[in-house]
Design a protein that fits this description.
The protein has two domains: 5-167, no CATH class; 172-293, no CATH class. The protein is mostly helical and 319 residues long. Helices cover 67% and strands 3% of the residues. It is elongated. Strands 1-2 form a two-stranded antiparallel ribbon.
Length: 319
């Protein structure tokens, strides 16, 4: 795989893209694994916990090549960006730890898959049945545990990433990318794509996220994009938070007024005028709308490169 470089450095949105691509790809592996295991159990009329397969059947439960593509592709990118953004001497971040665990566990699972698909068959052909049965005993216990542990680690890592993003709700690259590509990138991780994600990150949900994106677009002179984001924000601003959400529902009317005010400002200016306009310089009741719409945008520090893609070095890396 060619090394991926970012001319201006990696951003928090690059982390979002890489992580959710890895999670989406692994989810497909997980679903196929579960489907195949249940099909074998149904065919033999046994509980899956008592299912016993031969090496050729076990080797088809997981795709060695696909596991490698996940590990060396989006998961590698997510891990490297996370290390660069969140690791410092003697300290790390919960999300970074989860990503490292996912990388480590996926590497082991891939090695286990290789053992059963290659070594077990060689032992069987050589009539070394004790070694053959030993590998099968190991993977019959190890596969279900690791496959499900990875699923849970991805889930926990997603929650930790949402915490990271709450600290970067004013990052212009995150905001603009969320408005432009959020539904596509987040479609499989959340029930309703961008909207479900935004309720997990922004105090007032997707309408606030889109309003912030619109303000960022406007400050850059991207009038059409700002108007599109505001139109979408207006269409959903009255929606209440989902059940159990900690979002600030009482502030939604004030947010609606703020969106209308921003829309008026954008509509009456051309792109060049927008760049120079002090949008939302004042607000009558900032406590309702919150400082989020009033604060300064602070982009996350850029990361210059993704480092080595050498697989052996990555396997030996101290996590």
């Amino acid at each position: 795989m060619k090394r991926r470089r970012y001319f201006y450095g990696a951003t928090v949105w690059d982390l979002v893209e890489a992580f959710f691509e890895a999670k989406r790809e692994y989810h497909q592996v997980y679903v196929l694994y579960e489907t195949r295991v249940l099909a074998h159990a149904e065919e033999r009329s046994v509980d899956r916990r008592r299912l016993r397969l031969d090496a050729s059947e076990v080797s088809k439960l997981l795709d060695f090549t696909r596991l490698g593509a996940i590990r060396n592709g989006p998961l590698h990118r997510a891990k490297w960006i996370s290390h660069a953004l969140f690791r410092s001497r003697g300290r790390t971040h919960k999300f970074d730890r989860f990503v490292s665990e996912v990388f480590h566990e996926l590497s082991i699972l891939r090695e286990e898959q290789y053992k059963v698909s290659t070594f077990a068959e060689e032992y069987r052909r050589d009539n070394e049945l004790a070694e053959y049965e030993s590998i099968l005993d190991e993977v019959h216990e190890d596969f279900p545990r690791r496959v499900n542990a990875l699923y849970e680690l991805f889930r926990r890592a997603q929650g930790a990433l949402e915490g990271v993003l709450r600290a970067h709700v004013l990052d212009p690259v995150y905001l603009r990318s969320l408005a432009l590509f959020g539904d596509e990138v987040l479609r499989d991780a959340y029930a309703d794509g961008l909207r479900s994600h935004a309720w997990r990150v922004f105090p007032r949900g997707p309408a606030e996220a889109l309003a912030l994106a619109a303000r960022s677009f406007a400050r850059g002179g991207f009038r059409a994009e700002a108007l599109a984001a505001l139109a979408r924000a207006r269409s959903i601003v009255g929606e209440p938070p989902p059940p159990g959400s900690e979002a600030a529902e009482p502030a939604l009317p004030a947010l609606a007024a703020a969106i209308d005010e921003l829309l008026t400002e954008v509509e009456r200016r051309g792109p060049a005028e927008l760049v120079q306009a002090p949008l939302f310089a004042q607000q009558n009741d900032a406590s309702l709308v919150g400082p989020v719409l009033l604060g300064e945008e602070r982009p996350l520090a850029a990361v210059s490169d993704f480092g080595s893609q050498d697989e052996t070095a990555e396997l030996e890396e101290a996590l």
